[in-house]
Design a protein that fits this description.
Pfam families: Ty3_capsid (PF19259). The chain has 264 residues and is mainly alpha-helical. It is built from 12 helices and 2 strands. 49% of the residues lie in helices and 4% in strands.
Length: 264
């Protein structure tokens, strides 16, 4: 005959708590599931073999981030690399895949083949090749130049020197209102540049050309010396020219034989 065990409410609670402590997942009524392996099958980043430093670095950053977020092991990442390539890159991978023994080998081979390190002199040539034109936003221009500076050997220049390089290439419409000694870093340059761009857009919307910090000027007619218009818009000049034409002596033409002469 089974023996009946009587427990107080406090003893029952202690028993339940001890069971929960020893097996928290089971006590909560949860089922343990095996996590599926991650892969690049759903990765949206792809590469077609473009020989461009920025494109290569963007692609590598995307796949490295995806690998970390999805917790893909190096072994599984190495197996899934073909899913990331198409076009020329796919053909290239078929030829060199045996050289890639690890995940880091894959990244190194991509950089080596599609984005080889440029010599410093070539990077400098690209930096100073083109100044900022009127249409380029200062954010875009500075971003592009800093990307080139990043291709130089590490610790080649400090930020102060790099700022000197880029400041000299910035459009004059910014440098007129931003003194070099007023900016200590690229953040200062961008913030002040954005203010000028905003004021220019607002001024254009209002039909003017005023820039914050610039001195307001009113045009003066060089014909009548009044302000508010130029000599080509001057009504006095047009009126006087029309009057002169009305009183001009007409020209008479005389013909003698086949020879034409004109006299006034």
């Amino acid at each position: 005959m089974a023996q009946v065990i009587q427990m107080t409410t406090e003893q029952l609670q202690q028993l339940i708590e001890s069971v929960r402590t020893s097996n928290p997942t089971a006590s909560a009524g949860l089922t343990v599931s095996t996590q599926s392996k991650g892969s690049f099958s759903n990765c949206t980043a792809s590469f077609d073999g473009q020989r461009d430093h920025e494109a290569v670095e963007e692609f590598i950053t995307s796949i490295v981030t995806y690998k970390e977020v999805e917790s893909i092991s190096d072994e599984d990442a190495l197996k899934g690399v073909p899913l990331l390539f198409y076009g020329l890159a796919s053909t290239w991978w078929q030829g060199i895949r045996k050289e890639a023994k690890t995940w880091n080998d894959v990244l190194s081979l991509i950089r080596e083949h599609f984005s080889p390190t440029k010599p410093a002199y070539q990077v400098y040539m690209e930096i100073f090749e083109k100044k900022q034109d009127d249409k380029a936003a200062i954010d875009t221009f500075v971003c592009q130049k800093r990307a080139l500076l990043a291709q130089l050997p590490d610790d080649r220049h400090d930020e102060e020197t790099e700022l000197d390089f880029i400041y000299g290439l910035v459009n004059i419409k910014y440098r007129k209102h931003i003194a070099r000694h007023d900016i200590k870093n690229f953040k200062d340059l961008l913030e002040k540049g954005r203010i000028i761009e905003h004021n220019n857009l607002e001024s254009e919307a209002n039909g003017g050309g005023y820039v914050k910090g610039a001195k307001r000027t009113t045009i003066r007619c060089t014909y009548c010396n009044f302000r508010g218009h130029n000599q080509y818009q001057c009504r006095k000049r047009k009126r006087e020219e029309n009057t002169t034409e009305d009183y001009a002596v007409p020209k008479k033409r005389h013909y003698t034989g086949t020879t034409k002469t004109t006299s006034v």
